[in-house]
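Exercise 7. Given the components listed, write out the predicted structure of the assembled complex. Treat all entries as one system.
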Amino acid sequence: MKILKFILLLVALGLAAVATVIYSGIVNVAADEPHSDLVYWLLEETRETSIKKAAEDIKVPDLADPELLLSGGVDYNFMCASCHLKPGQKESDMSVGLYPAPPNLTIASDSHEGHEHGDDAQRARKNFWVIKHGIKASGMPAWGKTHDDKRIWAMVAFLQRLPELTAEQYQILTALDPNDNQEMAH
Amino acid sequence: MKTNLINTISKIALVLIPTLTLSMTASAHDPKLHAKKPEKADCSKMDHSKMDMKDPVAMAMMKKCMKQAEVSSDKIDGKMDHSKMDHSKMMDHNKIDDKDMKKEEHNNH
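Answer.
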């Protein structure tokens, strides 16, 4: 009975502590104030493990079709480039202002510091899952709500080649198809 | 009562007018970054000598540029659709004397 009372007391104290944190307003949610190293590590590890597990069974299709680069390029330019940048671009309003900062996808993932990216197939699975489902409270939208899997795989195919593209190649691949009169289609 | 109302309105106006003025003049540092006009592919910068034609990137670029060239030539052909020409009006030009014709040709080039 004493143990039960002690556990109940601990639970009540825990709830009171959580309520105090929530309602006192002491947590700074400003995006221009970074997390402490510990909180950042906790969030990043949780995110990476979650994505890896959720994406592990996704089957990667053949991404070598040039048509995928054209479709994915146009979508990337409209939907992603403002945060994840274009070849030759170092920063944008979004890449500077968002926290956590969106990764610069014009740089090969091997040269990113921090977490592991795995091989091509693992990267493709991860990219597909992230584009489709988005990431909570990070600014990354779930594009799967408005785009089918085929278009998302096309973006994944484009992302695989993006780090090697010159600004000129990027311009050609991402320019709107002359037959598509889809100005601001998104 | 009326004075109170006028005072309240004046206070609201004092806050609202500068706020609206400031928000309307506020702009991003480089408005070009926010413009999302569809651009044509700049195919003149393609360096064919450096391109591996088996590479999907090169193949995709060729495809895009060929399609764009086809559309451009279709547009030119469309503009020169002789079936839509009004030949009756063209006949009027025969009435123009040689001097005027030369003048008109000169103006049009």
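Discussion: The helical segments of chain A are 2-24, 37-55, 66-79, 81-84, 93-97, 120-133, 149-161, 167-174. The mean pLDDT of chain A is 91.
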